[in-house]
Amino acid sequence: MKIMSGFSLDLGPVKEPLGFIRVLEWIFTICAFATTGGYVGSTQFTVECGSKKDDVTAHFAYPFRLPSQPYEIPHCNNSKNMTYLQGDFSSSAEFFVWVGVLGFLYCTFTIILYLGYQQVYRESNRGPTIDLIVTGIFAFLWLVCSSAWGKGLTDVKYATNPDRLITACLPEDHCVVKTYPSMGRLNISVLLGFLNLILWAGNCWFIYKETPFHKPANPPPNAEGGVSTA
């Protein structure tokens, strides 16, 4: 095929802002959806009945449909209560990961285009123009999904806080918090989302410089000939 026969590896674009920022986008996009998509956490408290102590652990994981995993609370009156974490925050989490995966695929495609098919990319105005539009759309999507996931993460923290969960204990129970869920990885995912917003939005300028909107495709008619009018 013509496109395959036109492949010519050139690492030069990576040394320019256009290609270098795209590589950074590729890296940080992977980090963003990986830190969210593979998350598994738990929250724990202890029910103390005299000398007897029972640990209660509530597990949760991506995509954060919290009621899907029940946990059992033993009481001091020898009864047990099956309880569920409250809240379904899968929509914001899955949207965030979805944007990350699509961004990764687009970065992979454009990096191959920059490095192997630079002549195809620059031979017409269509390539840079489409690249600018798609990059702008992704910048907007990163803004929306990072904001939504930031709010969703706040709700997840509230729903899994053991200080709140021990309110399900009976009055005769003595419940104390044992461990709080580790949320550092999820906090980083939100920061990576907004970092991707900055990278994708900033890269729009360098792509814009490759389009005919920044510089005319042809020089003005009087620029070369020095024609003067009487």
Could you describe the 3D structure shown?
54% of the residues lie in helices and 16% in strands. The protein has eight helices and five strands. It has helices at 2-5, 17-37, 90-116, 118-122, 126-159, 162-165, 184-208, 221-225, and strands at 40-49, 52-61, 70-74, 80-84, 174-179. The strands form two sheets. Strands 2-1-5 form a three-stranded antiparallel β-sheet. Strands 3-4 form a two-stranded antiparallel sheet. 27% of the residues are buried.
Question: How would you briefly describe this protein structure?
Answer:
It is found in: Membrane. The radius of gyration is 27 Å and the shape is rod-shaped.
Strand order of the largest sheet: 2-1-5
What is the structural class?
Answer: alpha+beta
Order of helices and strands: HHEEEEHHHHEHH
Which band does the percent of strand residues land in? 15-25%
Number of helices: 8
User: How many strands in all?
Assistant: 5
Rg on CA atoms, Å: 27 Å
| Major sheet size, sense and barrel closure | 3 strands, antiparallel
* Overall shape: rod-shaped
